[in-house]
Amino acid sequence: MQELKDEVKKLLEQGSIAGFLGMIATTSGVVPHLFVADKADEIEKLTTGDVRYSLVQILRWIAVRHPDDKFGIMCRACDERAMTEMFRNSQLSMDKVVMLGIPCTDELRIACECEEPTPKSLLFGQSTAKKWDKADVERIDAMETEERLDWWTEQLGKCIKCYGCRNSCPMCFCRVCTLNDDPLVKRGEIPSEFPSFHLTRAFHMAGRCVDCGLCEEACPMDIPIRTIYRKVRLVVGELTNFWTGESKGKSPLAELGDGTFPIQ
Amino acid sequence: MADESGSPFEPKIVAFCCNWCTYAGADLAGGMRLKYEPNFVTVRVMCSARVSPHFIIRAFQEGADGVFIGGCHIGDCHYVKGNYITAKRVAIMKRLLEFLGIPKERLHLVWIAASEGDKYAREVDAFTEKVRAMGPSPLKQVRFWKDATVSKKIYKSEAAAETPAGA
Ligand code: SF4
Ligand code: SF4
Ligand code: FES
Questions:
Q1: Interface of B with A in 12-41 (CB under 8 A)
Q2: Would you give per-residue pLDDT tens digits along chain B (167 residues)?
Q3: Which chain A positions have a beta carbon within 8 Å of B144's beta carbon?
Q4: Contact flag B84-A259 (C-beta cutoff 8 Å)
Q5: How many CA atoms, within 13 angstroms, populate the side-chain half-sphere of residue B113?
Q6: Are strands B107-111 and B66-71 parallel, antiparallel or unpaired?
Q7: What class, spelled out in words, does domain B13-142 have in CATH?
């Protein structure tokens, strides 16, 4: 932890970053915060906490307003995967970001069912991998088609359309969102249309979702939506061998390819 | 398969046909006076790549029993590589539909050239027959209770009880 504070202090003092996006402990809880050189004393209150935020999105908003400045960001492994996709999708530029990796606590790792909790940029400490065993997806895969429809109707029927899943997602960066586009996904009605609402979002997560789980954490109705996105990630991975947050190069969905992809 | 009113089930299929090949193929099939099933509601699109995933979702949402996409053969797309992306999209979409409980067979992609009028007629017949055998889209049974916090699917029996026969 001290390692992180020292590093942030050093980077800010050197002026190599204009600010560091991390989390701060306040009397009302742990919240995202941009640490700047002028208020160096705040760095004492920098914390890795036990909560998660979509820091990556916040950094994107900051970067849009300050395109010439370089910023540091605190990265859990999931944040780091999201950053990889942000770079790939030209939402942030690699030379304007310094990532400082932090480990996650055991509680968090277990609660997140994290697939790979160790960021490559890990600065201190360690995370022991607790591999996700695909059980949630496999359980649904094993059902009969009709049973699956029942299960999802019941689950997705609880949706109150708060848009929390979209708003908390580090990978939702489109300016205009299809979920607000009335002809495609009906607005102002609950429950949400089945399957339009969730299927639309799921399709949009193809080649994007980094399986951070923030959506499910945000869902007030306890809908296991992450399972759908995990499935999307697996589908894209199996079809094209592209794994979000890990693979190098362009996404096969952003490229036309060579035409050898067969009808299936 | 029969609906509540007792008449045999006739599927409604939304077909997206690309202007340059499949639609021209359909034209040819008509010109050749080929006989094929009349269940398709055809939407002409400029390229199979114009069929955004939302079109597919929307069609199913509005009650289509099947969705058919026809494009040019690989290498023949008039926008050079449009159909490359169609193939990927459909492959992903099929798997997602299946995961949510909508049989993937209800979505069908095929390449039909402008000269393949007979192939068009055969494909229409085969797909119509397949969807007819599968019965109405399961999404038609999905209803949500307006005021309940927990929704559920209405099963055929309940739906029948709700709507008087013949209605
Ligand atoms: S797990 Fe949910 S919040 Fe995280 S990237 Fe995927 S869709 Fe977005
Ligand atoms: S967070 Fe949950 S309730 Fe809110 S829109 Fe998403 S799925 Fe629906
Ligand atoms: S023009 Fe026919 S598939 Fe592109």
A1: none
A2: 555 566 789 999 999 999 999 999 999 999 999 999 999 999 999 999 999 999 999 999 999 999 999 999 999 999 999 999 999 999 999 999 999 999 999 999 999 999 999 999 999 999 999 999 999 999 988 876 544 444 455 444 454 455 444 43
A3: 157, 191, 194
A4: yes
A5: 6
A6: parallel
A7: alpha beta
Beta carbons of B153 and A149 less than 8 Å apart: yes
CB A153 to CB B153 under 8 A?
yes
With tokens 């009302």, the residue in question is A28
Identify the burial level of A63 via C-beta atoms within 10 angstroms of its C-beta, where 0-12 means exposed, 13-18 middle and 19 or more buried.
buried
Picking from B81, B92, B99, the nearest residue to A236 by CB comes out as B92
Here the tokens at position A68 are 């010439």
Can you tell me the distance from the alpha carbon of A204 to that of A190, in angstroms, rounded to the nearest whole number?
A: 21
Does residue B97's CB lie within 6 angstroms of at least one atom of ligand 3? no
DSSP A95: G
Domain boundaries, chain B: 13-142
Residues of A in contact with B102 (CB under 8 A): 145, 149, 195
